Amino acid sequence: MRVLFLHNNFPAQYRHVAAKLGEKKKNKIVFASHRAVEKIPGVLNVLYKPHREAKPDTHHYLRNSETAVINGQSMFRVCLDLKKKGFTPDLICAHSGWGPSLYVKDVFPDAKLLCYFEWYYHAFGSDADFLKDSELGFDDAGRIRTKNMPVLMDLAHCDWGQIPTQFQASQFPDIFKSKLSVLHDGVDTDFFKPNKNASKKFGDLDLTHADEILTYATRGMEPYRGFPEFMRAAALLMKQRPNLHVVVVGQDRVAYGKKLPEGESWRKRMLEELKPDMDRLHFTGLLPYNEYLKVMQASTVQAYLTVPFVLSWSLIESLSCGALVVASDTAPVREVIRDTENGFLTDFFDVEAFAEKIAYVLDNHKDMDSIRKAARQSVLDNYAHKKLLPRQMRLIKDIANRTIPPQEGDAS
To answer: pLDDT for 182-221, tens place per residue?
Structure first.
């Protein structure tokens, strides 16, 4: 089989399937991305770069779409070069939204296109208007709706689509759901596993002396992932519990939602507002996977919050480690966590209730082995890549072999 993977970041959601396909010498696997800092045996990396950025004077509704078109043009040229060199894929697997898949079927009209969809944008009723300071006008609604243009192009011309969760699938128009499979990419449960004796040293941080460790781990420090609410709850708890240490893993940036003015950040804002004890509040930045794993394993309580949006890998990974998770009672989280069974849920906006729930778990964590085991088991049952990989491979083979609809069924 000849497969072309497209994703701005290598290998992202395609790590396991690309590695599996690369094991067979008869397969020819090419992965096109903006950067590739690692290698997968049997996978050829090809880099593509947009020739320019979207212009500042482009209509603000269309800047995302212009960026996607520019990415699509760059990928089109890469595909022409691959074709000249004799590579013609049976199947193209592409992450949708950033644009690389927009024109690939113009170069490879006989190839089947399987798109990985993460989000369909709505101004009202999901993420954009969830936060309390979200005052959206008609201009905002038009801009947000227009962000769907590259996604809609992919939905129209792909042969099939894959979406990781039922909640994310629910955001897509019903007219397209007959060609979508809900299938999570999965986490490595052999790597993300419990370890009661995990080291409490994370990079340069040594917390061997700490009895209670509250952790928060996500890509950026931002309202979409409840960073302000977490920090306010953590500050309350630190005043109440003199032995509590708080560890924040991630970058001081906004990955989703509104950007702050130049020079400002949510970390700076929260530190100025709360003035916490910096001897017990630790920002690690991004960590290598081995160090990040230890944070999950050594955590007394892991906090996770999100607006109704794409679910973070970190939630599944922490549950896989048997962590005690206190999370926001929002739709994407409820798909994974059952309150008091495999974790704990609380109101996203109620900082005091969030702090009280964390305090309850801290007070009783030694008696919660059943919840730790249930957390781990829920991942083994539903999100383990060892269990999902055969289904993903079957989906790939079905689409490549033109078995449509595939055996995985649809999202309706």
So the answer is: 999 999 999 999 999 999 998 889 999 999 999 999 889 9
Q: What is the CATH architecture of 2-186+385-400? A: 3-Layer(aba) Sandwich (3.40)
* The amino acid at 326: V
**Cβ 333 vs Cβ 306: under 8 Å:** yes
Decide if 3 contacts 30 (C-beta within 8 A): yes
The dihedral sign for the CA sequence 227, 228, 231, 237: negative
CA pair distance 310, 333, nearest whole angstrom: 10
Instruction: Show Cβ contacts of residue 379 under 8 Å, excluding neighbours closer than 6 positions.
Output: 187, 189, 192, 316, 319, 320
CATH 3.40.50.2000 domain position(s) in the chain: 2-186+385-400, 201-382
Using CA atoms in the order 187, 192, 194, 198, what is the torsion angle rounded to 10 degrees?
-160
What type of residue is 125?
Answer: G
DSSP at 67: H
Q: Are strands 205-206 and 201-202 parallel, antiparallel or unpaired?
A: antiparallel
The answer to whether the beta carbons of residues 327 and 343 sit under 8 Å apart is yes
Q: CB-based burial of residue 274 (10 Å sphere; 0-12 exposed, 13-18 middle, 19+ buried)?
A: middle
Residue 345 and residue 353: Cα distance in Å, rounded? 10
The architecture CATH gives domain 201-382: 3-Layer(aba) Sandwich (3.40)
Q: Which residues is 251 bridged to in the sheet?
A: 220
Residues 150-163 as b/e (b if ≥16 CB within 10 A, e otherwise) read bbebbbeebbbbbb
- 319-362 pLDDT per residue, tens: 999 999 999 999 999 999 999 999 999 999 999 999 999 999 99
